[in-house]
Amino acid sequence: MQAYEIRRVREADRSAVTGIFNHFVENSFAAYPDKKVGPEIFDLLKNMSRAGAFFVAETPDKEVIGFALLRHHQVAEAFNRAGEITYFVLPQHERRGLGARFMETIMIEARAAGVETLLANISSLNEVSLNFHLKHGFKECGRFQRIGQKFDQDFDVVWMQKFL
Q: Which domains does the chain have, with CATH numbers?
C-alpha cells in the first residue's frame, strides 16, 4: 500500500485541486457542474472551508491526488453545530483508505470547531459515495427528487447525516 500524506492545502496546490475537481466534473456525478471550471474554484473552495479545514492528500512523490474540506452548512450562527463535508480522490487512488483518512481528519477539525453533525449531499447516481457514507456511519436524512440533470440524466440529491 502506498503511503499518502494528508496536509493542509497550500497555494501551490491550486492547479492540482482544480484538475482533480475537473476530473469529476467531466467524468462523474460526484461534482455537480457540467462544464470544466477554472482555477478560481480553488479560491471558492478555500473561502468556503470552515476555519481553514481544507486538506490535500499527496503521494510520496508529492503528487496531489485528492482533497477534502469542511464547510459551514449555513452562514447563520444558529447552524454552527452542523458542517458539510466534501472530498474527492482520483480513481486510481481509491480503495486505499484515503476516504476514511480524510473523514477522520475532517471529524477532528469538526469537533474542534464545535460541530456536532456532519452533513453530505450526494448525487443519487453516485453509488460509490452513497455506499462509502453508509459504511462510515452516515444515514440518509433527506432527498430532493429530480432536481439535478447532468449528462442528460436526471438525479436526486441525497442528504446524509452523521452525529459526532
A: 5-118 (3.40.630.30)
What is the rounded distance in angstroms from the CA atom of residue 156 to the CA atom of residue 150? 11
Beta partners for 121? Answer: 159
C-alpha cell of residue 77: 450562527
Amino acid in position 49: S
| 139 Cβ contact partners less than 8 Å away, ≥ 6 residues apart | 160, 161, 162
Distance CA 4, CA 98 (A): 8
What is the rounded distance in angstroms from the CA atom of residue 150 to the CA atom of residue 148? 7
CA distance 66 to 150: 23
pLDDT along the chain (164 residues), means of 10: 88 98 97 96 96 95 97 94 97 92 97 97 97 97 98 98 98
Q: What cell was used for 104?
A: 477522520
In the beta sheet, which residues pair with residue 104? none
